[in-house]
Amino acid sequence: MNQLAMKKIAFFCLFTLVSFVGFSQPSISYHQSNLPFVGINYEIKERLKPELRLGTNYLFEDITVEIDISYDIANKEDYEIYVGGGFLTSDHTDGIVIPIGTAFYPFNEKKFGFHLELAPIIGDNNILRGSWGIRYRFLK
Fold first, then answer.
1. For the segment 42-85, what is each residue's pLDDT rounded down to a tens digit?
2. CATH number of the domain that 99 lies in?
């Protein structure tokens, strides 16, 4: 197993452990773009969201790993506006990620919603990633 694979496994284990320790509310998301990914986040105190994101449509040995922490600037019942920072690592690029986005929850139960995000990735290759997708919150 190469060093990059070990780093990805270590990041995943550390993030998972830290996420389960805090009191939180989990959600999952799928982001569609040229660089699609799935995310698992935990909402802590209604505004702070550490998130693990894994690239999709890749071979397992080429999976992109991203760890972000977002803060909700606006956190209303029907929508959220957030900004954050994090780090992305893959075989293609490593860099700092600055996600800026919004999520909408148009249905009565406020568990299922849609989101839009713009995220500059600054590093080996500077990329401006735009994505849209779906989000499901496991509300308590």
1. 888 888 999 999 988 777 777 889 999 999 999 998 999 999 99
2. 2.40.160
Partner residues linked to 54 by β-bridges: 38, 65
Whether this model's pTM surpasses 0.70: yes
Q: What domain range includes position 44?
A: 3-60+72-137
Of 8-17, 52-61, 73-82, 114-123, minimum mean pLDDT range: 8-17
Which of 51, 66, 47 lies closest to 7, judged by CA? 66
Count the domains in the chain.
1
Collapsed DSSP state (helix, strand, coil) of residue 62: helix
Confirm if 100 and 80 have CB atoms less than 8 A apart.
no
Examine residue 92 and state whether it is found in any structural domain, yes or no.
Answer: yes
| Distance of alpha carbon 67 from alpha carbon 118, whole angstroms | 16
Tell me if 54 sits within 8 A of 37, measured CB to CB. yes
Closest CA to 53 of 80, 73, 33: 33
* 120 and 15 Cβ atoms separated by less than 8 Å: no
Tokens of 97: 């990620």
